[in-house]
Amino acid sequence: MVDMVRRSYVEKLTLTHLRYRAPWDILLSKFRRGTVTVAGDAMHVMGPFLGQGGSAAMEDAIVLARCLAQKLHQVDLSAEGRQMRITQNVIGEAIDQYVKERRIRLPKLSLQAYLLGSQLQSSSSLAKFTIVALMMIVFKDQNAHSQYFCGDLRLSVRREMECGEEEIDIVIAGGGICGLATALALHRKGIKSVVLERSETLRATGAAIGVLPNGWRALDQLGVASKLRQTALPIHRASEIWLHENKQGTTQLMDGEVRCLQRGDLVTTLAENLPHGTIRFGCQVLSVKSDPLTSYPLIQLQSGSIIKAKILIGCDGAHSAVADFLELKPPKLFSIRSVRGLTCYPSGHGLPHEFVRFRRENFLVGRIPIDHNLVYWFVSGQEGYPTDSNISKDPELIRELTLESIEAFPEEMVEMVRRSDPGKLSLTHLRYRAPWDILLGKFRKGTVTVAGDAMHVMGPFLGQGGSAALEDAIVLARCLAQKLHQVDLKAEGRHMRVTQNAIGEAMDRFVNERRMRLVKLSLQTYLIGSLHQSSSSIVKIMSIALMMILFRDPTAHTRYDCGDL
What we know:
Helices cover 42% and strands 19% of the residues. By secondary structure, the protein is α/β, with parallel strands linked by helices. Helix 7 packs parallel to helix 10 (263-272). The longest helix has 41 residues, at 81-121. Residues 25-73, 168-485 form the FAD-binding domain. This is FAD-binding domain-containing protein.
């Protein structure tokens, strides 16, 4: 380093006294007067300790331009008199929107930079200790600031949306399995909807999904089962091997078909059967609120656009903005983490059509063939994976940690993990919505409801998460279709209230039909998860006893029929 400084360009050398705008000043300051505002260092000069000064300035540019663009097309900057005042008010609203959006982001950045700077410059051990403690409390993930996305600047053609507000009859938040299946079910009933998907392409994360007989009944109703059957082998039996006890057992699988589908095959097939323009990519739902005039939902997107919907269905996963609007309790965490992956054998894997699980103490390793070349596998356990959230974004590190955790397992599984496709690896901290929360939760507010993981996220222990989401799609579309042909979604005044009441009745019927089915599924999953994660003999005995009392036939859940669409 000494030699580096010695050899540096003299004309590039600078000496700067570091400055900062205090976090509390950013939080409380008025950054707009009339049609004047600030950005960059003029707004939030900060020390270089986070390396975010320049990046934050570029974020300012994107957000400010987007906010102004949404308003400027509505006004004439050359206007005079009363129209000039209207123009000024509109510009003021745009700047206020910019300041509001940035005020959420900038105090956090400036506070983190301020604490790092204070730690560097202070000579007091007590002050340093206090600062470190504050950092650990306030910024548990100290790299979270780099994951921020300021939103899109330009409006994508494929979104087919203009700046400002848009009215859509039926909006589905989330373009995963449940969202696409719900849109397709509505389409089969002749009902148009729009799917808002936050990513820029179809999401095929999660490697694969087991579909049980009840899931195939739902896929038959959607009209896509025949095509999907061609992509996956039927699974005939299941084997359980307890390595630490040196014993094993094999059972024939339940009546009806069981197959493991690539998640990408399922999502793509559902999407291909939807009308063109149904899915709008790059549309992340930030929040939902009720229109004070009509009581219909207002959907705030990360791009700054607002959508007025007549019906909103939240299929946006475990971290659902729609579930937040419904004030549902947040999902809980199992102490178990799960790694999932796919391994391809170009010359064929030669495995039987069998679901095999290996157990050793608190670790569970399983595999199931998808076709003659591709195998889906998973590793679940409570140890071996640090809590650092950045690990889930590093496939090679996931594979390395997984290989370390399964060293004592059969070599065939170790080699399967070693040869896996890094692009399909995922590390997940398993979540669930508690059975009592499903039993007591209010899953409808006005003309808004939820389905899929947003409604009933559950652990993978029954393999019913995806199949239950497909059931939701069928039941919800059927309930809505029975009412929507009786009303006019464009109605206003008294007729609008009639329409809202009819939609509410349809959603209530959906919730009532699904509630007990989902309580049973989630309870059975919860008990199996508790048995898997607990080290307490008492908890294990109680879980087994409850399973024997409540679920004498442990595979009865697969014989459920969600009915015709």
